[in-house]
């Protein structure tokens, strides 16, 4: 165990999510808005204290415009939210044109979430985003269930996942976070393969592929079969993913799944995460990531585990990572 | 009519959309009716004066009375009466005549007339015939379609589909010229409808961010998807894309 907060004062809770990258990805608090839950960030401008977030991950952006899933797109289930939004959006060209100039004016880094059905398309997306002022980093969404793949998230196939990461890496020097599905298996090998392919950090996890049926015989509750579960029910599942991935790689981990208060976030940090992204809870309480920053600063340092599974040496030992 | 998201801290992930059933500007009060069928609302119902519930709102676009309306027809079912409250109050206060047609499964689920203004004409249909007309509330609409110069329906998708279907045939049955509507539907961004549609609807709000961000509440509109929490929950019938089968 190392004391991750050792060099920090009570108020410095900043984290570097891409220490290997030339530009780095310094976030002033470890609390991020998870992809899709605050739109492109601009919707919350003026209402949500975005400048007190660590970073904002945008709604998933695709190459071509998409209209999203047919309604209903959301249903509340015990301790969770089932959703099939279907990545609606105008496509990467329009998103960058409309919103990047506004992101540039913000002090909070904006991480562009990219989504595609084919590995090569992540290269095209990354290429388009490369060098665009206002985009601080990329997150490759290999977690969302994709109908084009029979509802299978890309990260369920380690080869495809590594190909997608390598394609994006080849196209840009921007920091790259890769988001894993909680349904992924053989997590340690997957994590190593992604880091090898160029991932700077791993987001663990996206939502869990899931289903809810109408008990009165009306079929599935949601309009699309590509549905997934978020919220409190997801937390123990994502926590285990964080713990497994931390055993295998030293790169920063963004824990994500069911965080709705500081104790939940502390669980993630204790499992080996360096930062925490908040999705569902921010739908009800958009200022939560900002408040968690204040609460963590008051709470003080957190003991966190390092890499234990050294089957292959990580690029830098976790404890010696520059801060 | 406005929406508020109200939720118990920490228990269920999302806020609840609750319609404002009445507004008392003098006393600075709003009335909310909470369905006991929703897991989150008993918590809210147990709050006392002085407790904090952390609401956000009012949100969304309310219903409006057309200036030329004299006779207002309201169509509702089950628990969908509250969103019509402020409109009803405003219509009565401005001397309009208002009829409410209510459908329910049985007499036990009929909205209590004691909560409705005396000036309102109240007609009930129950599926089991335990009160009023036996059958659907939609059966009652044709008798009022010539009388009413504006109609508002509030309820589940099945009811709204059927009422919208009826409303589409109304102009032809009554021999009303249909000016403006076609261009408004085809025109992409022109938006402005010269002739208001007879029917407005209030969609049931689903849980979500209620802020227009998550896109979890969208329904198909006549010119692309619309958000119930922002562009709605009140829509003119011609703003929505209805299934033609209804
Ligand atoms: C409404 C909604 C929309 C989402 N959209 C995206 C998306 O566009 N891209 C993505 O990678 N994840 C998306 N997610 C997944 C979240 O980013 C997050 O990984 C997941 O919900 C788990 O975190 P939570 O339990 O805090 O919500 C979405 C989740 C929700 C609830
Ligand atoms: S509920 Fe989130 S956009 Fe309407």
- Contiguous low-pLDDT stretches of chain B (5 residues minimum) are 178-194
N- to C-terminal distance of chain B: 27 Å
What profile does the largest beta sheet of chain B have? Answer: 7 strands, mixed
- CATH level 3 topology of chain A: TIM Barrel
Please, what is the oligomeric state? heterodimer
Strand order of the largest sheet of chain B: 8-7-6-5-9-10-13
- Overall mean pLDDT of chain B stands at 83
User: Radius of gyration of chain A in whole Å, from Cα?
Assistant: 18 Å
Q: What's the CATH class label of chain A?
A: Alpha Beta
Q: Kindly state the number of beta strands of chain A.
A: 18
* Helix/strand structural class of chain A: alpha/beta
Number of helices of chain A: 8
| Shape summary of chain B | globular
**CATH C-level category of the domain at 71-171 and 187-200 in chain B:** Alpha Beta
Percent helix of chain A, as a range, is 25-40%
Secondary-structure-based class of chain B equals alpha/beta
Salient structural properties:
heterodimer; A: 323 residues; alpha/beta; TIM Barrel; 4-stranded antiparallel beta sheet; 18% strand; disordered N terminus; disordered C terminus; B: 246 residues; Rossmann fold; 7-stranded mixed beta sheet; 4 helices; 15% helix; binds flavin mononucleotide; binds FE2/S2 (inorganic) cluster
């Amino acid at each position: 165990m190392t004391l991750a907060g050792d060099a920090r004062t009570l108020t410095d809770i900043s984290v570097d999510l891409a220490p290997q990258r030339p530009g780095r990805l310094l976030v002033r608090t470890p609390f991020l808005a998870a992809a899709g839950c605050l739109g492109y960030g601009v919707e919350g401008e003026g209402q949500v204290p975005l400048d007190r977030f660590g970073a904002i991950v945008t709604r998933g952006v695709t190459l071509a415009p998409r209209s999203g899933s047919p309604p209903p797109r959301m249903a509340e289930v015990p301790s969770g939210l089932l959703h099939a939004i279907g990545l609606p959006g105008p496509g990467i060209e329009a998103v960058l044109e409309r919103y990047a100039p506004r992101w540039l004016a913000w002090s909070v880094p904006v991480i562009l979430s990219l989504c595609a059905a084919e590995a090569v398309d992540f290269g095209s997306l990354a290429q388009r985003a490369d060098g665009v002022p206002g985009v601080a980093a990329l997150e490759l969404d290999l977690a969302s269930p994709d109908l084009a793949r029979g509802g299978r998230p890309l990260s369920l196939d380690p080869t495809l996942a590594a190909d997608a990461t390598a394609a994006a890496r080849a196209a840009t020097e921007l920091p790259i976070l890769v988001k894993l599905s909680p349904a992924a298996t053989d997590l340690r090998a997957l994590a190593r393969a992604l880091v090898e392919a160029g991932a700077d950090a791993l987001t663990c996890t996206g939502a869990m592929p899931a289903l809810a049926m109408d008990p009165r015989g009306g079929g599935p509750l949601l309009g699309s079969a590509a549905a997934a579960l978020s919220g409190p029910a997801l937390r123990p599942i994502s926590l285990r993913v964080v713990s497994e991935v931390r055993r295998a790689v030293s790169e920063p981990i963004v824990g994500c799944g069911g965080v709705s208060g500081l104790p939940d976030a502390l669980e993630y940090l204790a499992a080996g995460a360096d930062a925490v992204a908040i999705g569902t809870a921010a739908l009800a309480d958009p200022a939560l990531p900002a408040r968690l920053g204040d609460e963590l600063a008051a709470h003080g340092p957190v003991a966190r585990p390092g890499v234990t599974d050294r089957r292959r040496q990580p690029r830098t030992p976790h404890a010696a990572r520059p801060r | 009519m406005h929406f508020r998201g109200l939720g118990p801290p920490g228990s269920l992930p999302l806020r609840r959309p609750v319609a404002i059933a009445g507004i008392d500007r003098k006393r600075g009060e709003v009335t909310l009716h909470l369905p006991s069928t929703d897991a989150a609302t008993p918590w809210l119902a147990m709050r006392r004066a002085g407790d904090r519930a952390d609401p956000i709102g009012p949100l969304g676009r309310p219903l409006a009375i057309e200036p030329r309306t004299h006779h207002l027809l309201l169509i509702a079912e089950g628990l969908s009466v509250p969103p019509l409250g402020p409109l009803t109050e405003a219509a009565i206060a401005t001397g309009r005549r208002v009829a409410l047609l209510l459908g329910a499964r049985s007499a036990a689920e009929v909205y209590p007339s004691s909560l409705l203004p005396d000036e309102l004409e109240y007609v009930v249909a129950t599926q089991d015939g335990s009160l009023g007309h036996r059958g659907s509330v939609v059966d009652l609409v044709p008798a009022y379609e010539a009388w009413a110069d504006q109609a508002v329906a509030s309820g589940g998708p099945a009811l709204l589909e059927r009422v919208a279907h009826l409303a589409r045939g109304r102009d032809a049955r009554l021999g009303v010229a249909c000016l403006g509507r076609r261009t408004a539907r085809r025109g992409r961004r022109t938006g402005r409808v010269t002739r208001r549609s007879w029917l407005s609807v209030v969609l049931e709000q689903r849980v979500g961010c209620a802020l227009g961000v998550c896109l979890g509440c969208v329904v198909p509109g006549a010119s692309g998807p619309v958000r119930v929490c922002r562009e709605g929950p009140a829509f003119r019938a011609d703003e929505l894309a209805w299934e033609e089968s209804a």
